[in-house]
Design a protein that fits this description.
Blueprint (H helix, E strand, L loop, with lengths): L1 H21 L12 H5 L4 H13 L6 H14 L4 H4 L1
């Protein structure tokens, strides 16, 4: 019985994969951010954008969390990806 369930699961996954492959031209890829935006240092403009996002968010309620986020942003201005490697 377990082998049959495993076979059916793999069959379903294969069919989903085939469907996505056959209709891949109908899916549009929209990049969220460029590589440079993700791994570049955070400038004053970047900090303003993040400040806007954080202040308008209803999710963030803790002052400690805001402090951690802004400290990370301030630290990112002085670090780079080269320091990691």
């Amino acid at each position: 019985m377990n082998e049959r369930k495993l076979f059916l699961l793999l069959l379903v996954l294969s069919l989903v994969n085939a469907f996505i492959f056959l209709f891949r031209d109908h899916f549009k890829y929209i990049p969220d951010a460029a590589y440079n935006q993700l791994y570049d240092t955070c400038s004053a403009t970047c900090i303003k954008e993040w400040t806007k996002i954080v202040e308008s968010s209803d999710i963030i309620e803790s002052k400690e969390l805001l402090t951690i986020i802004f400290n990370r942003l301030a630290d990112s201005m002085y670090s780079s990806v080269d320091n990691v490697y």
